Structures are given as structure tokens and as C-alpha cells.
């Protein structure tokens, strides 16, 4: 039987609606390749009226994140307009399933980037803004080995929401954005730090990778005006309750989210 991405998308959408945990999908529904996972992700985006997407997140671009997740390459997922916030955000903790927060950088695209092989210089040429960000992720998976990478691709790789910063008058092209130190801090004193060098050697390498990915191919490439989260320089901090979270990558403006 040929793979039907709409069946996979419907199953994942139902699991998310029921606030259940994603375990291994049944044979015949579970994607078995990353291309099938990407096709299912597109079907999920269509199901939630997110085509074209507001942007994309890239997960597991950092060595610490890859080690944490047990994967050896990035995974990308679409982002809905309603799930992306700017500067400071106030959200309901209860709206998320086992949420966590990540210390990220992001870009806003000034021009289209077609699907296919892409050099770092080509990626650099389409970037308008380079900003700090917070991704809100959900620990909505059971045994990751049983779930499998193709299903993680289909399910947007932990993504739930994001907060992206403003440029704030900072001329990012004058910065060494490949060596910015980021810090994530919570109001209970929890904190972690990392450096953008850990994101595939340079954060814009992630944008080049995304352009050549099966996800970009499924969605017809990247479009001007989209936001791309380039990955977290720290592992996720899982939240046990309401929290205020701040991410800084000086001299970029900070971003904050209050999960109440």
C-alpha cells in the first residue's frame, strides 16, 4: 500500500488535540523515510491551515542537542503564524503539554530561497534580520527510538510556539554571529549558556541545510518574510510550572516569555 501522508497527519493531529503522548504509529500510518515524514508534515500544515507557513524551526543543530536527542542531523518543522510571537509574550502554561524552553537565534528572510543545494553565502544573501529567540517545545513523545526520526519530522520536531526578537537598531552584519554567547534564564534562578558556534559550526549553516532539506522541498522552498529558528545553543529546560523566561545574545535585544 502506498504511503498516505494525510493519514499520518490526521493521526498526529488527533493525538495533539487529545493532549496525548506520541508513541510508535501503526504500520501503514508511520512514515518510514524522512521524505515521507516531510510529506506528512505538509499534510499536517494543510490540516491546520498553515500553508504557506509563517516560518520554520530547525531542531538538533547543536552538538549538545543532538547528543540529548540521540540524533546525528537536524530536523525541521513548519511554524504557524498564530504560534510565533514577537519581543515579549504572555502565554498560558496550561495550553502546552509538558513544555520546555530553548535558547535560540533566528533570522527573517528578505528574499526567497529555492529548495535544493545551498551554500552558506547564498543563505547569508537572503537574511534581513538576525535576532534572539525562544522556542517553546513540548515533550510529547514516548520512546524516541520507537517513535523514529520520520515521525519526528512529521510532527514538527517538538515544536509548540516561538518568541522572536527585534533587530533593535543593531547592525548584525558587523557582528561575529558565529560566535555569539547566549544565555537562557528563568525567574527561579535556573540558567544555561551556549555559543552559536555549536550550531553546525555557524548558525547560517543551518539555513543552508534547511534549503536543501526534504521539508523545504515539500513546502516549495523558503519565502521572503518567513522566520527561521536556527536552533538552540542549550538543551531544553523542561518546566514544572509557570515561569518567566528570558534569552539574551548580546548585543541583540533580549526576548522574554511569561508562561502563567
Brief characterization of the structure:
It contains 8 helices and 13 strands. The chain has helices at 5-17, 34-47, 63-69, 120-125, 144-147, 149-154, 203-211, 214-219; strands spanning 55-59, 75-79, 84-86, 88-91, 99-109, 127-138, 159-164, 181-186, 191-195, 227-232, 237-238, 243-249, 252-259. Helix 1 (5-17) packs across helix 2 (34-47).
List the helices and strands and how they pair.
Layout: H1 5-17, H2 34-47, E1 55-59, H3 63-69, E2 75-79, E3 84-86, E4 88-91, E5 99-109, H4 120-125, E6 127-138, H5 144-147, H6 149-154, E7 159-164, E8 181-186, E9 191-195, H7 203-211, H8 214-219, E10 227-232, E11 237-238, E12 243-249, E13 252-259
Parallel strand pairs: 1-10, 3-7, 4-13
Antiparallel strand pairs: 1-2, 5-6, 5-10, 5-11, 6-7, 8-9, 8-12, 12-13
Would you kindly provide a written description of the structure presented here, covering whatever features stand out?
The chain has eight helices and 13 strands. With 260 residues, the protein is α+β, with helices and mostly antiparallel strands. The strands form two sheets. Strands 1, 2, 3, 5, 6, 7, 10 and 11 form an eight-stranded mixed β-sheet that branches. Strands 4-13-12-8-9 form a five-stranded mixed β-sheet, with no helix packed on it. Helix 1 packs across helix 2. The chain starts with a helix and ends with a strand. The relative contact order is 0.24. The mean pLDDT is 95.
